[in-house]
Design brief:
Blueprint (H helix, E strand, L loop, with lengths): L7 H5 L2 H17 L6 E4 L22 E3 L5 E3 L7 E7 L4 H17 L4 E8 L2 H10 L6 E4 L1 H9 L9 E5 L5 E6 L4 H11 L1
Parallel strand pairs: 4-5, 5-6
Antiparallel strand pairs: 1-8, 2-3, 4-7, 7-8
Length: 194
Amino acid sequence: MTTDRPPLHHRRGHPLLAAGLGCIAALAITACGSANDSTTTANAGGHAAAPAAAATGSQRVDFTLPDLNGDARQFSEWDGDLVVLNFWATWCPPCLREMPLFQDRYAQYADDGFTIVAVAIDGVDETRNFAGAHAIEFPILVGQAEAMAASSDYGNRMGVLPYSVVIDRNGVVRETHRGEVTRAELDRWLRAYL
């Protein structure tokens, strides 16, 4: 007996292909967040005002990653400054959109004890090319798995990019933010903690 129907595996699709596409879609959703995804703030008592990042209200975590020259840099080098720790990548559109704002505010407030430490989860060459083309002056560190581990230590359990952490002059994590940082949000952080 013959039939005109295609074999069963052609009609239903390949199960591994479907599973793989589902994983890719999930990664795409968590890899690059959009503006105003989430912000968590520590209150005066140091307790999280909203659930999310376990790191909010706690002392900053130290880590070491190479900079764009390949020199090992310890995050504790910036102790005493108000720091926005930003995890990003050159392939992430929301990450790229917030960089000019970061550079503008860094140039404006660096002398007042404000810095941005950008951790690129990317290749050194791609990151160096981007920083050079956009005249980025704030510190940029680079890494892969070790950079993602640092991001996770700061509450980014889902691996969302961009992901920003506001650390006050005493080394206390005050806020975490998933997704693109807006001008209003960054200015609010500067008013509150600088």
